[in-house]
Amino acid sequence: MMQASDPNQKIARRAILRGAGVTMALPFLESLSATAATGGNAVFPKRFGVVFLGCGVNEDHWSSEGDGAGMKLGKSLEPLEPLKGKINVVHGLFNKGAMGLGIHPPQTGSLLTGAHLEKGAVLHSGISVDQMIANKVGQDTLQSSMVLACEQPITGFHESNFSLAYSSHISWQSPDSPVPNECYPALAFDMLFENRGSLLNISILDRVKERADRLGRRISSEDNGKLDEYMTSVREVEKRVEGMRKAQDKAADAAKGQSKPVWAMERPANGLPEDLREHAKLMCDLIAIAFQTDKTRVASLIISRDLSSMYYPFLEVKDGHHTASHSNNNDAYERITRFHVAQYAYLLSKLDSMREGDGTVLDNSCLMFLSNLWVGRTHNNSRLPLVLAGGLGGTLKTGRTLDYVKAGDDNRKVCSLYLSLMDRFGIQLERFGDAESRLVGI
Amino acid sequence: MNHFRKGHFALAALLFASLSASGLSAAPAPSLDRQFSDSVGPVIAKYCVGCHSGSNPAAQFDLKSYDSLAPVVRDYPRWDLVLKRVASGEMPPNQAPALPADARQKVTGWIEAVRAEEIRKHAGDPGPVLNRRLSNSEYNYTIRDLTGVDLRPAREFPVDPANEAGFDNSGESLSISPGLMAKYLEAARQTADHMVLTPTSFDFAPYPMLVETDRERWAIQRIVAFYDRQPTDFADYFAAAWRYKHRAALGMPQATLGSVAGGNKLSARYLEQVWQLLELTKEEVGPTVKLQAMWRSLPSPKPGELDIARAGCVEMRDFVRRIRRHTEKLFDVPAVPGLNVNFQPFVYWRNREIAAHRRDFDPGALRVEGEPPAPEFTVTRGPTFGRGEDVEVKKAIADYQKERREDPDLVVPAGQRARYETSFVAFSKAFPTGFYARERGRFYPIDSYDKGRLLGAGLHNVMGYFRDDSTLAELILDEKGKKELEALWLDFDFVADYTVRTWRQFLFESAAARLGRAITRPTFDESTTQATVLRYRDYYLETGAGANNPSVLAALKSHFQAINSEIRLVEQTRKDAELRHLEALLKFAARAYRRPLRAEEREDILAYYRQLRTQSNLNHEEAMRGSLVALLVSPDFLYRPDLVETSFGGAAKPSATGATVPLSGLALANKLSYFLWSSLPDEELLARAAAGDLAKPAVLVGQVRRMFKDDRARGFATEFGGNWLAFRQFETLNSVDRERFPQFNDVLRQAMFEEPIRFLADMLRNDRPVLDLLYGKYTFVNPPLAAHYGMPTVAGGPDHWVRVDNADAYGRGGLLPMAAFLTLNAPGLRTSPVKRGYWVARRVLGEIVPPPPPVVPELPHDEAKSDLPVRDLLVQHRANPMCAACHARFDSFGLAFENYGPVGDRRTKDLAGRAVDTRATFPGGVDAVGLEGLQTYIRARREKDFLNNLSEKLLVYGLGRSRLISDEPLLEAMRTNLASSGYKFSAMVEALVTSPQFLTKRNRITISSIKSSVSSKVP
Hints:
The complex is a heterodimer.
Chain A: E1 21-25, H1 28-32, E2 47-53, E3 64-65, E4 72-73, E5 87-93, H2 105-108, H3 129-137, E6 146-149, H4 165-168, E7 172-174, E8 177-178, H5 185-193, H6 196-216, H7 224-257, E9 262-266, H8 276-292, E10 298-302, H9 321-325, H10 331-352, E11 355-356, E12 359-360, E13 365-371, E14 384-389, E15 400-403, H11 414-423
Parallel strand pairs in A: 2-10, 2-13, 5-15, 6-10
Antiparallel strand pairs in A: 1-9, 3-4, 5-14, 7-8, 11-12, 13-14
Helix pairs in contact in A: 5-8, 6-7, 8-10
Chain B: H1 2-19, H2 28-47, H3 69-74, H4 76-88, H5 101-122, E1 132-133, H6 136-147, H7 178-193, E2 195-197, E3 202-204, H8 212-229, H9 234-245, H10 257-263, H11 268-280, H12 287-296, H13 310-326, H14 344-356, E4 367-368, H15 387-406, E5 411-412, H16 417-430, H17 470-476, H18 479-496, H19 498-509, H20 530-545, H21 550-593, H22 599-614, H23 620-633, H24 635-638, E6 639-640, E7 660-662, H25 665-676, H26 683-691, H27 697-709, H28 714-724, H29 746-766, H30 772-775, E8 779-781, H31 783-789, E9 802-804, H32 819-824, H33 833-844, H34 870-873, H35 875-879, H36 881-887, H37 891-895, E10 919-922, E11 926-929, H38 930-959, H39 968-980, H40 985-993, H41 996-999, E12 1000-1002, H42 1007-1015
Parallel strand pairs in B: 4-5
Antiparallel strand pairs in B: 1-6, 2-3, 7-12, 8-9, 10-11
């Protein structure tokens, strides 16, 4: 009857039936926005993204001095040179609650949540800042957020008495459960363009209409009145779901009609890319195109997780990532760090090449690059390496070095930064994690 | 709503008129109509219409609009009220001209005749029961019973509107909207996210199962819970053996070891073994000797001291454990050049050896006088987290070694090694070093570090699990237990895929390059093939060859072999499971639809699954979830339709005779379970329905009794009780000022909500008299509520509820003084005698009181800031006849509760410091004081009203429709049954469920139903 399948292989049989890719015209919003023709001050949506590097940086080469065109970047940050006017290099932020509990999982589990982690088998962090934002802005897009990773999660209980799940996930939708990471580029693509979620909803709704029809023949005509109500409701919901999809297609057609330049992205091949370079690039492409076409406004990407076992033959590093981080002040680990920054820079430059109004998609976004440690060989997380990119619709000044290393513990909380960022998304909280005040100077 | 009823009545009247066999036709009806126009109408016009008409009629009751019989019949409940009011002389009110006696008689006589006629015509009419969806509560309970997890997805749904009687379980008020439909879709997805596929079926977890860490957690918790349930404490076995030994003295001379084991929930065969060692084994030296000495010195039973031997048994157990801990056979990882001590296959090898030798002992632990000490065993230290931990671990290991070295019971006289070793063999065989390893850290068996790594393999920095429970199966478990344990471990790998994931991590972490010999990394997809696993095996065999240690090579070989076998096994299990999952899906569908599926429906469900696989391109698990979602938004699940076919699962048989048809067994089972549990029928109900005897009165009565004793009857207590007494939404009540009343927090609020539910559930379970609701001197409290009521402290947490028999000493007992009602009916910063009184009159006694006129001045918001006590402010209600007409009925009831504050606490002063005054004058001029006065008054004058009200509410709730005139005889029967049974709740219910109203439905012949009966015959 049915073919058995291996759940580890999410093979797309549909490749035969459908075309290999999709084209999306851009910009999506301009084609719909009434003010586009006048070129006036259209308000574009703000986007938020996080790019993660596990196990810290090479602290000798992670530096920035000065602002604006004169900013001098350390070796590991060199890939950001062309974009330095649009970034903020932030030094010295930390999460006090992630110190002193043990190494690795407890240093990562609250990175984006600020939660106080407890030892033991029960997983309990908080809602991460990206998911907080997604909860606010997610309803307006097809997908409320994209949570991607280039590395498979590990689970089980670490000897620090914390769960390894803390090392595997940075985005948390509830304190008890992280958002599942999507590791397969093809499936992440499908979620965006094949609209897996809403297509499935439509197919379900179609089916239950049939059920209502069949059921209607087995009940009295009077009772069919209630079923009519049901049918109407189902049709209404279907219309709404279809409506959103149609709006996307309409934008594409409209833009095509106006002969605007078109960005093409092919559907990635199935399975996991063997080469991390390819994997990371695909994930960045997906985030870029998703932001640009407003399929989502929130994304997080783990290039290498905490306790990463990634390996980098193309960087001529013999050790695995985690092992290399134990000699993080070596050149090998510097190359690893710089590789990650280069992927981040690739994403930024892609977003910066997508025009939106008078600026670019990057100008309307904020993309944060960070790691859970500062110095891997001592597991020091008393300050975190962190870069912000994008002007967030003019609400964030860029091109700065912001140094909080000596600002005092109360004034350098990374959760204060999160509060400040959330403010700009219209989420005004009194506290987040261990912070009750915003980050001064941001 | 009126429109509907009118339509139905007209239709019913037509049907009855045309189909009635007795040929009763028009005679009485026109006469009543005539009577109305001739005599009743004019009386009303003269004496009543003056106030009861116009744009703002008194009590919002426009009598002028009734111009004939038909609208009276349609609106009978109000005319019932007319009857009451006129008969009692309350109407016309004192200020208006009084009705002369004969006019009064005309009106009341006519109304009674109308009633009698309607009853005669429609006795036993099941009435119009509209097709309805599940209410939100029913949805929650149904999901709970379908999945086994109380997910409560409907907490996000908009609140269901109630029908006139206040219940939300009838088609009269339940409708569906696109907004609700979207919520159903979301709720179905959430529920489907909790689904977990197992090798044989699927189950539901208490949390979503989409992330690996959650899947692991689920599987691990089940295994650990299984372990924890097993009887593995030596002390318990020693105590059981002692009981057997002294069975005569303990009054059970016929006991056997088996029966003693069974009675104490221990393993019979292990008890045999223990007994063997204690009583029958002859040893001269060694630990058995000492143990037997301790055994023989256990005291004999004394009367009243049944546990006299317990302390001794515990000592024995501690002795056994110590000896075994110090003689445990431990293994160390082999030293192999090129492979470090934490090399996974070696750690697993060590774990396996330890696991396999739990019933052995280490001869090296015995210290023979004169012999040089055996080399100290070592516990391989895994990497530690820096100097601090390093020092502590070293110390822990050193302490352990010292304990072993200094154990006096391990000393052997010179030359006696062989004898002692023999005795240790038997001892160790009987007493394993452990029955299972629930946790394992890096330094096992030193367990002071790395705690909590459930089922772990003790690896460093990476995931890994290890199963170590063979002695449990060997010594303790019966066949059933063994099977269960095997299934649990298979489930673990099936659900969490830990072998594959551990392997992959090992693979990609393995520092192959560091060894200086390259091995090609496989692609991700190739990583788990047999070829890859064996390739790595061979690579490491080569690496390890240099150690010249055959056991090393054997260890490496078996490790990779084991991994490969497990991966292949799980793969195969997944393939085999798919069909089983689909079978389970069909079974689930039948339970969700609450009826058997037709062949075409089964095929339909499978076809949709296939569509999800092939067209939507989902994998098996995703397609299962999608299919589940489709089931849970399907109308077959969401609605409780009245299927036209009358026989159990068969085709429709249009019935040309009779206005009503009996409900099918299945329909009856559903009606009964949604009545008494607000949820789907269970196996037993369905079995009775299938057997065809569910409608028999004796069977029905038996089921009612059973169902009320079941925990699910809480659904009835909550839904019926909660809606009848208007506290259903109390859990989310937020009108209390928590700064003024800080004791009112969420925990107390929940406790207040629980109290009436527990009271009612207890009444149902134990068949207590319904009058306890009014006069009972007991209630139920948990610790927070007990504190709130000033009762003696109740120990435990909020889930611990106790019955308080002398609650009246604290001003409690029965429903009336329950904090939930007192708080619900108090607007925040003061009490409200009006609201509280109204609640008693309306909810408890069933009075129909119209709403107040639109412009009524507000009473002061805050009692503390008001110059007058509340009762004085209400004087207007008495002084003004327009107000008094209604307020005289209930204000006084509320005043009787003035000694309970806004959150239901007892008080002697109000919030402004004035002494409270609970005197009241009840309707009819009865002076009384406080709660007791109210209870006395009700008992003397209003008990009938309470019982009438309760029976009416029960009828409406049970039938899922509003009351009809023709229900009067049934209500009479319910009340009679009630009174003659000592007022037991079940008596009312039994009368209701054995009535034609409950057991039949209106025969609704339609063209479409005939069509479907024809088409269903087509194969």
